[in-house]
């Protein structure tokens, strides 16, 4: 069978996506993409999967299909910490998201908030973002960092260079390399090339994700794949849990031995 890109990050109607599992699979196959489902498993997402029983039903459903079984977990929500080993084993891969970060004074700033504290500067926010990220990388047993350059809404129009200095990029990439977490080239929140290049040069594995919620977004990996290829990442080295394994599974094996 010829190589196909894997859309490691896509959502269904089991959380806040527009398509059923069948619809995601059909859409992916029409794009020549291997499908996976990685719905929101978090109490912080309005339409997320919010309990252990719901996680079991979610995995029961996915196991009926020829599809990779992912999940997207919010760092700041504790549900990922509560999953028992029997549930963790059933995921093919897990994705972590910084949907919120904590400022030095303990204030939480959500990525989708339309307002931030009036006195919050970009530098203070980004320093807190990277500090939160480093804690995430040390502690969260995930395979992929979703949309690595996602920041809170009031700062999204700022110049990339103001947000992502080279020192901050190096800080992020070093934490990913140390933790063995893949960097997602997101179709929905595209990262800038310099940061992706830095990750590639550091040996961080690259993952492709549509972060598809709508039918149009689903499995459209054209831009992420083009960027990965422009940076000379071999197709076969792009993250595929069936080829490269899962950090979660490795941790479970280590715990048992």
The tally of structural domains comes to 1
Total helical elements: 11
The third-level CATH topology is TIM Barrel
Coarse shape = globular
> Which stretches of 5+ consecutive residues score pLDDT under 50?
251-257
Q: Please state roughly what percent of the residues sit in beta strands, choosing from under 5%, 5-15%, 15-25%, 25-35%, 35-45% or over 45%.
A: 5-15%
Oligomer: single chain
Major sheet attributes: 6 strands, parallel
CATH class: Alpha Beta
Number of strands: 8
- The SSE order reads HEHEHHEEEHEHHEHEHHH
What's this, in brief?
The protein has 257 residues and is of the alpha/beta class. The protein has eleven helices and eight strands.
Describe this structure in words.
It is a single chain. By secondary structure, the chain is of the alpha/beta class. It has one domain (21-256): Metal-dependent hydrolases (TIM Barrel). 38% of the residues lie in helices and 12% in strands. It has eleven helices and eight strands. The strands form two sheets. Strands 1-2-3-6-7-8 form a six-stranded parallel β-sheet. A two-stranded antiparallel ribbon has the order 4-5. The longest helix is centred in the middle third of the chain and has 18 residues, at 122-139. It is globular. The N and C termini lie far apart (35 Å). The model is unreliable at 251-257 (pLDDT under 50).
What topology emerges from the helices and strands here?
Elements: H1 21-30, E1 36-40, H2 52-62, E2 68-74, H3 79-82, H4 85-88, E3 95-97, E4 100-102, E5 108-110, H5 122-139, E6 144-145, H6 160-163, H7 166-179, E7 182-186, H8 193-202, E8 206-209, H9 222-230, H10 241-244, H11 247-256
Parallel strand pairs: 1-2, 2-3, 3-6, 6-7, 7-8
Antiparallel strand pairs: 4-5
Helix pairs in contact: 5-7, 7-8
């Amino acid at each position: 069978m010829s190589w196909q890109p894997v859309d490691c990050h896509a959502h269904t109607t089991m959380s806040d996506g527009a398509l059923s599992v069948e619809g995601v699979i059909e859409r992916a196959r029409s794009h020549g993409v291997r499908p996976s489902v990685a719905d929101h498993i978090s109490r912080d997402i309005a339409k997320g999967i919010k309990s252990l029983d719901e996680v079991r039903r979610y995995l029961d459903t996915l196991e009926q299909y020829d599809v990779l079984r992912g999940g997207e977990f919010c760092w700041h929500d504790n549900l990922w910490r509560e999953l028992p080993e029997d549930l963790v084993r059933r995921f093919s891969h897990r994705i972590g998201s910084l949907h919120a970060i904590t400022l030095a004074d303990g204030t939480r700033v959500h990525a989708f908030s339309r307002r931030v504290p009036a006195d919050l500067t970009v530098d203070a926010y980004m320093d807190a973002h990277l500090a939160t990220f480093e804690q995430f990388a040390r502690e969260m047993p995930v395979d992929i960092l979703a949309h690595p350059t996602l920041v809170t809404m009031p700062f999204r129009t700022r110049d990339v260079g103001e947000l992502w200095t080279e020192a901050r990029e190096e800080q992020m990439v070093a934490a990913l390399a140390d933790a063995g977490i893949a960097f997602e080239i997101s179709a929905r929140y595209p990262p800038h090339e310099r940061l992706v290049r830095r990750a590639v040069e550091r040996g961080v594995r690259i993952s492709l994700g549509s972060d598809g919620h709508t039918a149009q977004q689903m499995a459209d990996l054209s831009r992420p794949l083009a960027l990965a290829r422009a940076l000379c990442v071999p197709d076969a080295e792009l993250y595929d849990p069936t080829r490269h394994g899962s950090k979660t599974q490795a941790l479970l094996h280590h715990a048992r031995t």
